[in-house]
Structure formats: C-alpha cells, structure tokens
Amino acid sequence: MKIVLLVGSIVGTKTRIAVRTMEALMKEDNSDTEIVVLDLGKLDVIFSDGRQYFEYEGDTNYVATQLMEADGIIIGTPTFQSSIPGTLKNVFDLLPIYAFRDKQIGIIATAGSSKHFLMVEHHLKPILSYMKGEVIPSYVFIEEKDYDKKVIVNHDTIVRLKRLRDQLLLNLETLEKRKKEIDSMYDF
Length: 188
Description:
Helices cover about 40% and strands about 20% of the residues. It is α/β, with parallel strands linked by helices. The chain starts with a strand and ends in a 5-residue tail after the last helix. The radius of gyration is 16 Å and the shape is globular. One of its GO terms (molecular function) is oxidoreductase activity. Keywords: Coiled coil, Flavoprotein, FMN, Oxidoreductase. It comes from Vagococcus carniphilus. This is FMN reductase.
C-alpha cells in the first residue's frame, strides 16, 4: 500500500509541520506501508501546459506519477485568500480528470483563523470529487493558535490527525480486502 502526503504550498511552515507530523504518526503503526512525502517547496514543479502527466520530466513527472500511483493521499494545504494555493491547483491541473479514482483522500488544512474553514468545503472538496477521489468527510483544520515554536501543541489537533490517519488506513484496508474477494470470484 502506498500513501502520498502532499505539502500543497511552496511557502510557510505550518502546513509543512502538520504534514510532517502526519508522516510521523503514519510511521508509528505502519511499517509495511510505503509513505512518500511530496513537499512542493522542495521540488521544482513547472506550470501545467496541457500535456499528459507522464510526458513531463523531472520533479513535475515525479509528483504527478507519485500521485497517480498512490492508494491513499493526504493533502496538506494552507488557506490563501480564502482558497487553495496556486501551486496546489497547478498540481491538480497536471493530472487527468480521473487521477483520484479509487483513491482515499484525507485533508489537512491550515489557516490563521477559524473563519477560513469553509475553504475546504467550497474549494478543495469539489475539485477532489470532480477528479473522482473518495474524500474522507472529516478533515483536520489547524489554526495559528494550535502551534507554538514550530510544533503542534494542541492535544485535540494531534487526536484529530490520528483519527484521520486511522480512517484513511481503515478505508484502504477495507477496499483492498474487498477487491481480493471480488478477484477470487473469477478464474482468470
């Protein structure tokens, strides 16, 4: 099983901290799961120009291919101007419309205040659904006040991150089991 954790911005630290915290939580219980972190701030992803995702080269091809090959994805995104960052939208533009078919997708959103929580509902979830993703309904919204000295200090936030991890893994394991059951019904 392959899970990709995506840091959907090239600037700031809070989303990166949240995704890295999720990476550590994932590694606690899942030694057999391949975990890939895609940090757009550390990769050179070019602007989408309409090519097929596999025609790109370098980091752009790497990001697109990792997302296409993933079983599960957790997208970390800050809130910019009550929306997702352009760098994250560019990643979506690199991929085909069906890119997230049969993929479980969790969301971690960061923002300066609670007033931006609807960004996930009105901007991000519709894009992921349009791209055929199975979006986990409960996402983790993290505010400025949940951090101190570049660490998440709010215990409730850590609990919510663990719940998101557990739900993603449960969904993936259930789907994998069901696919095996269906496959075993056929002789070919």
